[in-house]
Amino acid sequence: MSADAPLPPPVAREVFADDAWPLAEAYARMLAGPAVVRGLLGPREVDRLWDRHLLNCAVVAEAIPRDVHVVDIGSGAGLPGVVLAIVRPDISVTLLEPLLRRVVFLEECVAELKLGNVEVVRGRAEELAGERSFDVAVARAVAPLERLLTWSMPLLHQGGELLAMKGERAAAELAEAESQLRACGAERAELVAVGHGKVEPPATLVRVVAGRPPGRGRRDPRRRRKR
């Protein structure tokens, strides 16, 4: 089942350029149709599909380096993971989602849009820790930053980044997570605004750079191995 998505604002053609545009339109129709029918997106969100969801997620790409592997924690209906895969074909995206009905929808999206740079994994971040490592973790409306840090940091290699979409409460959540940032060995954390001139207001991200995991200190070279 499909439905007509609302008309996109003119800036959408700038954000979703070239080959990304037909994919963005097709994904918008899937969100306005099957995603609403299955309860993955609220009916009231359809009218603001482009401004609040698609464009807001697409501008996160400004903060992502080239040719990296991204994990979208708690992907839901694919926001922001599917959008990032559309607008940035140079990156690989893993959509991590524990709920079966959402996983089925995500798999349908990947097949329908022919996204060769996307994989769908059913599971929780805690279950993937120690088995997979990523360059960048993204998350939108999943959990408070303190909890998100405990899920995301074990999935990142040293120097990897968490980009958490936090909006108006970004600064407050960052302050509240100070002790957890130290506990998880974060190297640094900061607020980043993306999408200037494209979304209003610009999207606010909390960027956290993963440091050396706790308990994995560097070995003292002065200590000699016993023979």
Structure description:
With 227 residues, the protein is of the alpha/beta class. The chain has one domain (11-210): 3-Layer(aba) Sandwich (Rossmann fold), CATH 3.40.50. It is built from 9 helices and 7 strands, in the order H-H-H-E-H-E-H-E-H-E-H-E-H-H-E-E. The protein has helices spanning 11-15, 20-37, 49-58, 81-87, 100-113, 125-128, 145-152, 170-176, 178-183; strands at residues 69-73, 92-97, 118-122, 134-140, 156-165, 186-194, 203-210. It has a 7-stranded mixed β-sheet with strand order 3-2-1-4-5-7-6, sandwiched between helices. Helix 4 links the parallel strand 1 (69-73) and strand 2. The longest helix is centred in the N-terminal third of the chain and has 18 residues, at 20-37. It is globular and about 50 Å long. Residues 216-227 have low confidence and may be disordered. It is found in: Cytoplasm. Pfam families: GidB (PF02527). It is an enzyme of class 2 (transferase). Specifically methylates the N7 position of a guanine in 16S rRNA. This is Ribosomal RNA small subunit methyltransferase G.
Q: Could you give the topology of this structure?
A:
Elements: H1 11-15, H2 20-37, H3 49-58, E1 69-73, H4 81-87, E2 92-97, H5 100-113, E3 118-122, H6 125-128, E4 134-140, H7 145-152, E5 156-165, H8 170-176, H9 178-183, E6 186-194, E7 203-210
Parallel strand pairs: 1-2, 1-4, 2-3, 4-5
Antiparallel strand pairs: 5-7, 6-7
Helix pairs in contact: 2-5
